[in-house]
Amino acid sequence: MGALVATGSVFAQDAAGSNPESAKKLETVTVTGSRIRSVDVETAQPIITVTQADIQKTGLTNVGDILQNLTITGQPTFSKSAVLTSNTEEGGQYANLYNLGENRTLVLVNGKRWMTSLAGYTDLSTIPATLIDHIEILKDGASAIYGSDAIAGVINIILKDHFEGAAVSGQIGQNEGNDGRQQAYSFTVGSTGAKSSIVFAATYNKTDPVWAKSRDITDYTYGPNHIEDGLSSTSPWGRFKPADPSTATVTGSHYLDHTGSWNGQGEGADSTQLSNYHSPANFPDDYYNPSQQMMAQLPTELKSIFTSGSYTFNDYVTFKATGMYSERDSSTQTAGYPLNSASQPTFPVYLSGQSFYNPVPGQDEFFYRRIVEMPRVSDESAKSFHFDAGFEGAFQVGKYTWNWDAGFGYNKYDVNTIGTGNINLLHLQSALGPSFLNGAGVVQCGTQAAPIALSQCVPFNILGGPTASTPQALNYINALEQSNLQSLIKDYTANITGGLFEMPGEAGTVSFAAGVEHRGVSGYDYPDELASAGFTTDLAAGATVGRYNTNEVYAELNIPVLKDLPGAKSLSFDVASRYSHYSSFGGTTNNKYSFQWMPFDDLMVRGTFAKGFRAPTLADTFGGGSQTFDPYSDPCDTNPTIGSTSNPTVAKACAAAGLPANFHQTDTNGKPVSAPDTQGVTPFNAGAGNAYLQPEHSISRTAGFVYSPSYVQGLDFTLDYYHINITNVITAISADYVLQQCYVFSVQNYCNQFSRDANGQVVGLNRGNANLGSLDTSGYTFGVHYRLPEFSFGKFVVTLDSNYLSNYTTISTAGAPPQDYAGTYGYPRVRANLGLDYTKGNWGATWGLRYYGAFRDLCWDDTECNEPNYNGHSWPYGVGANRKGAIIYNDAQARYELPWKANIAFGIRNIFDKHPPTTYSVNNSSSGLIDPTLDLDRYFYLQYNQRF
Q: What per-residue confidence (pLDDT) applies to 933?
């Protein structure tokens, strides 16, 4: 529905769960979370099912957005709004169950592992939504069944494998702001016979960009209430100071005179004349708003072809195969590079004293200038190829039918990235080197005695600003970069399941499943060679190359104990165990225990206890590492908005580091920063692989019930408690984390990971991967599904799906204090979807409500702090909080079944144009401090589906 309230929150398939007659016709099926085939689709594990009909009612065209509407899905690590993220995952879409991280959710397609990146993320955008029959989401750990990554849960996307005839579909929609247009088209054809079936489909999806400057809430780094605080100190107009102050004839910083202000519109004065400069900086005219050139949501384009076929040789053997190729193209744009002489500390570049454009001849200059003429653009092409084939069948062992399957899966994920807008420092050094005005009145590199041909070097007037640049100079200093990544997975599996014997008292059949799996994983990530060598302003990174393989064996046993007794209509237990041996770290065994008890017909009580693990990925183990310009807040800053010096422990540590009592973190102009998490001006070092990493380990517990009162037909309730604890967490720690651990928690190991320059500013900070700390979360999910009795005026279905987050606590290292994020930004206590569906003849309509509970945010200052004295249990942000109210979105759709085997639907998401709040906890200067999962404004769409 509009709010995506899945119709199958009680049963694995709603139709079977709600209709006794259809249940009688069921053959044995395998439900996500168990390998044992059964006719009973009620499970001991909590499962949500989203059908193709549910997907149609959302108005969404991609799997990532569809799953993002689930109430147990947290904020994505890589979102369509995070355009500053430089990972190769950017542009894809991922599911973050329980906020435990996308790489802790296992994604299957037709029960088989899908392709992942080197960091273990599964890009859901590679799976066209129109090909989906239904999606099963297991809200429970399942490493004992599926192996690594199934800590938060399992998403099993079931594609259409039988189709008769042909069908086309199309959808188009866009925001009320006339941007963010989405298009989705598909063609499907298939044939199903007595022994064979084949399906072929082709799809096309396209999403247009949304620009940050198009809305006030995204046009400013810290939101519309703090326009000037978010301005960058590196403007489009040149600034210089002597490269060597000890020999300078002209000292201090000088800013070029210009018209215009921080919007970058204006004209610079003649930069070769020292009289055309001023000092100090004029605020805000000598600053810049980088959001002017940034995307708020990036564009994507997906093309795919899919085929699936099967052939039944006889009653015992069937061959099945599936193939899919998809190609996703995406693009990001950020503001022109904030260039200065030390942008790449390993290769500093200065304006030569012999440059024609130097206003102080004979003196080398340290310069600052944002190159707005060349926004940084990254074009990414991700090509995914999947193929699986295998045999399956059945045979009799006594009176029991045993099912088997054996097959091979192949997943290849190739990503090619082309970037422009960074600066080629080798060419920049030449362009800012000696130059002169030749006899033709053209500025030329070199000297009159030793000129350099214009075909080999183009001088650059870097201090003159955009109006002084030439296309030839910009083309000369532009770095055209290219990087390549590949992830390859080969998977061999064999499984068997069937009945063993009968339990006493006609309790039922003891059934089992067992299987083996061999998986080989390999990959590489080759960054641009020039950038990797440190000769561009891009982040220098090392190559990642690695491989590992794993051999696994599992067994599962279902034991019915009681049946048709007082207080025990049924009682059964399920036990599963899996042993996994990895070439990279060794072996691990994980078990799962669950029970299912029906004291009477209307009530089912269920519970699970499961151990799980997540193996280190190729990036975790073999990552080449990269420079990064981290946003951070220096704890030693005496501005309470930035630092934590009100804490005596912090104040003492900062004083011991030799910092003055009035110390401030500064920007590139030496001006104190005025906002938390301001991007640093020197690169830090992040993310080199750790060959000694061990797997993460988890324990998951769930307990709940399903209640379907016989006295109210069509009504179902579910309530489940979950508790997930993860230890040995593989953590890519942040700059803020390093500084907090050092100054707030006095962990000396982290104090050794950075130093300070002569002005006390943090430099050379190192952060990488480590097995440290733990993560613990718990809460409750509650659902209601009520199919009302049919009235003369139509049929109604009411659905509710909700999640209450009790706890989300992280502990950085053993002995460090816990930090509970429940109720803060990104971790609302309550999320809920409420839906009402109506049908009458050929007409249908849906109303959906999406509820995001209130949360506590960082305070900007006393004027934006409605709880200034708040210091709750494990509150991670010090004293003071700003409570933000709940957010409610309303969606609606109307549809009609046309007489020529077609249907049409029109819908609106966010009918009342609810705008998200500005949120200072968001660390993304390109999205105006808003939750990227929330709607910017109304969204209108039109669907059409045609069968032949």
A: 65
The model's pTM: 0.85
Percentage of residues in the chain having pLDDT higher than 90: 67
Mean of the pLDDT values across residues 845-869? 89
Q: How far apart are CA 890 and CA 908, in angstroms?
A: 9
Task: Find the angle CA(869)-CA(865)-CA(803) to the nearest 5 degrees.
Answer: 90
Angle at 870 between CA 867 and CA 874, to 5 degrees: 140
Cα 62–chain centre separation: 14
**Is-contact 912 939, C-beta < 8 A?**
no
Average pLDDT rounded to a whole number, residues 183-212: 93
Strands 165-175 and 939-947: antiparallel
Nearest Cα neighbor of 336 from 289, 281, 401, 398 is 289
Q: What is the DSSP string of 683-738?
A: -EEEEE--TT---EEEEEEEEEEEE--TTSTTEEEEEEEEEEEEES-EEE--HHHH
Write out the H or E segment, with its range, that includes residue 883.
strand 882-884
Of 166, 55, 133, which Cα lies nearest the Cα of 901? Answer: 166
CA 640 – CA 665 distance, rounded (Å): 12
Q: How many CA atoms lie within 13 A of 386 on its CB side?
A: 24
Check residue 540 and give its pLDDT: 84
Q: At a CB cut-off of 8 Å and minimum separation 6, what does 608 contact?
A: 44, 45, 140, 141, 592, 593, 594, 595, 700, 701, 702, 703
Q: Is there a cis peptide before residue 284, judged by omega within 30 degrees of 0?
A: yes
What letter would DSSP give residue 228? G
pLDDT reading at 15 higher than 60: no
197 CB-side CA count, 13 A: 15
| 824 vs 656 pLDDT, higher one | 656
Question: Which residues, in sequence order, are bridge partners of residue 588?
Answer: 580
Q: What mean pLDDT do residues 652-676 have?
A: 90
Structure tokens at 940: 């209108």
SS (H, E, C) 595-645: EEEEEECCEEEEEEEEEEEECCCHHHHHCEEEEECCEECCCCCCCCCCCCC
Instruction: Return the sign of the alpha-carbon dihedral for residues 65, 67, 72, 75.
Output: negative
What's the rounded Cα separation, in Å, for the pair 277 and 607?
73
Going by pLDDT thresholds of 50, 70 and 90, the confidence category of residue 351 is very high
Residue 926 banded pLDDT, cuts 50, 70, 90:
very low
Say if strands 766-767 and 684-688 run parallel, antiparallel, or are unpaired. Answer: parallel
Could you tell me if 480 and 418 are in contact, meaning their C-beta atoms sit under 8 angstroms apart?
A: yes
The single-letter DSSP state of residue 504 is G
